[in-house]
Design a protein that fits this description.
This protein has 8 helices and 5 strands, in the order E-H-E-H-H-E-H-H-E-H-H-E-H. By secondary structure, it is α/β, with parallel strands linked by helices.
């Protein structure tokens, strides 16, 4: 856990990727595998987590609502601030490992890359919402958005407000994710088109190395 105000204790792992990349599935498989190995974790998501954040989530994903880009940003950050203050930071400070589906990088990819909001103000506002809390490891499930939406169609479920955006929007999101991964060593990029068993093994190996290193006094 890289934190401007406290020392390192629990490990903070996030999952990122475009729609349909399999974040929830891979995340839940990781948690199940870790727990079978005797490693307990706190699982949360964004938008979401605490009750107030879950209510914000229902607004953000409602396909019936028209939400401006700036309003969308502020809602995401409000949800994140609550998640960090009430769940993530307290758990990390108690030595609990936290796994979160989406975090600040999603804001950079979707609101800066997808919506075209200005980079510096968005990153400054996100830093205020998180209090400077940065993940130790970010697992990026990389997939062509067209394949991601093909998966969603096969699942037969209705699209949420974000999934209804154009394919060009989601391709911009992917490009920002890849750019972020090139610039930051905390990223671990997984080919989300690979066999699930291969993805799961690579993900678990990277997470176990991180947690073991932190428990051994590494500088996580």
């Amino acid at each position: 856990m890289k934190d401007i105000s406290t020392g390192s204790r629990g490990s903070f792992i996030t999952f990122e990727g475009v729609e349909g990349a399999g974040k929830s599935t891979r995340c839940l498989e990781l948690i199940s595998s870790l727990e079978r190995s005797g490693i307990s974790v706190l699982h949360t998501r964004e938008p979401g987590g605490p009750p107030a954040s879950e209510r914000i989530r229902s607004l953000l994903l409602d396909p019936e609502l028209l939400i401006s880009p700036l309003t969308e940003l502020m809602l995401y950050l409000a949800s994140r601030a609550s998640n960090v203050d009430l769940l993530i930071r307290p758990a990390l400070q108690e030595g609990i490992n936290v796994i979160c589906e989406r975090y600040s990088d999603a804001t950079y990819a979707y609101q800066i890359g997808g919506r075209g909001l200005p980079e510096k103000p968005v990153k400054d506002a996100d830093s205020l919402a998180t209090g400077g809390l940065v993940p130790d490891l970010t697992i990026l499930l990389d997939l062509d958005p067209e394949e991601g939406f093909a998966r969603l169609r096969r699942q037969g479920r209705e699209k949420d407000r974000i999934e209804l955006e154009t394919i060009s929007f989601h391709k911009r999101v992917r490009q920002i994710y890849l750019k972020l991964a090139e610039e930051d060593a905390r990223y671990f990029v997984i080919d989300a088109s690979a066999e699930p068993e291969v993805q799961d093994r690579l993900i678990k190996d990277s997470v176990v190395r991180l947690i073991s290193g932190n428990n051994d006094g590494g500088d996580g």
